[in-house]
Design brief:
There is one protein chain. By secondary structure, the chain is an alpha+beta fold. It has a three-stranded antiparallel beta sheet, with helices on one face. The radius of gyration is 12 Å and the shape is globular.
Length: about 70
Amino acid sequence: MSDLTPTPDRPGLHVSKPSPTTPATGSAVCHCGASATATGDAQVRALVEGYNTHHGPAHRNGGARR
């Protein structure tokens, strides 16, 4: 499998939780230049919600660029 980690050339959101007992990890890169990482289930959940609200899909749906 190829590396799914987002980069400025390949923006997106990546979340990993290899097993139910390990904490989730996540990374996000938006085409506007914003990037973030998170570790822990609650922090990754917040990362995903923030990315979906303010970046990625928000930009594709006519949201303002930041």
